[in-house]
Amino acid sequence: MSLELTDLRLTYADGDSTLVALDDVSLTVRPGELVAVVGPSGSGKSSLLAVAGTLLRPGSGRVVIGGTDASRLGDRERTALRRQRVGIVFQQANLISSLTALEQLQVMDHMRGGRSGKAADLLRAVGLDGRENRRPHQLSGGERQRVNIARALMSDPAVLLVDEPTSALDHARGTEVMRLLAELTGERAVATLLVTHDVAQIGHAHRVTEMDDGRLSERQPGLTPGVPASSRPGGR
Ligand code: ADP
Ligand code: MG
Question: Which region is the signal sequence (predicted)?
Answer without folding.
Answer: none
